[in-house]
Amino acid sequence: MEYRLVNINMKIVIFLTFYLHVFSAGQSEFPCTFPCSFRNKTFDLYQDLINAESPFTTWTFNADGSAATVFGDSVNCFQVSEQFLIIRVENSSIFLCFPIFYTAGQSNFTFVLRGNLNAKEFENVSSALNQSQLCEVCGVNNANTVTVVAIEQPSSYPDSVTPAVCQVPSFCPSNIMTSCPEEGSIPTECSGVTTNSPTTVTTDTPTTTTSEIPTTIGTKKPCARRRHKHTNGH
Question: Residues 73, 94, 140, 171: is their CA dihedral positive or negative?
């Protein structure tokens, strides 16, 4: 009987150690899919909804829920952590991250665009990004951010938009930005829709080489001049 109790206690210790490790790192959805209400739609992106005469670019989501086109690049939904959407530029090692603010039923959503997109390169990634990597790509190391409103085409000014109230994940320290709540999430609105169910995992990936990537992935920066008429993509 004593032997069995010792073994049970050891199993409890092992389980608690694993439990604390998993939840201290935060849970992630990997692989991920875009919200069902975004799929097969194109959204116009506005930097200044009140004064903008035209969007500075568009974000088109494919019907399959996993692919999209934004900033001139084909991207794939890679991972969701809290309310942060991590996308991967197709056929590359470049990752970008945006906090998404969306209220179910609205035809618009809001996200925060970081200076130079804060794109990061992680080599040989085949599993979910770990907490350290998420802070590299989702954390903000400067105050250069822009709030963007995405409006479903055909565009019409909405009565209300969901405000961007935070900029960094709950587990990423920042002295200049507001941390998002740990329980934050991105509504999927996929009830009754048949999709490939993503796996909720938290993993430690092997050490990867990271480097900050300049804005050289076909990205069009938002025009800083208000009421500037955009023509021919400029």
Answer: positive
Q: Identify whether 218 is part of a domain.
A: no
Name the residue among 234, 232, 229 with its Cα closest to residue 52.
229
What is the residue range of 134's domain? 26-212
Contacts of 162 (CB under 8 A, 6+ apart): 101, 102, 103, 106, 108, 109, 110
One-letter amino acid for residue 226 of the chain:
R
Tokens of 195: 């999709």
pLDDT tens per residue, range 59-115: 999 999 999 999 999 999 999 999 999 999 999 999 999 999 998 888 999 999 887
Q: Which two three-digit tokens encode residue 8? A: 């049970």
Cβ 134 vs Cβ 120: under 8 Å: no
> Which has the closest alpha carbon to 43: 148, 152, 149, 147?
152
pTM of structure: 0.70
First-last CA distance in the chain: 78
Q: Is residue 41 part of a domain?
A: yes
Q: Is the peptide bond before 35 cis (omega within 30 degrees of 0)?
A: no
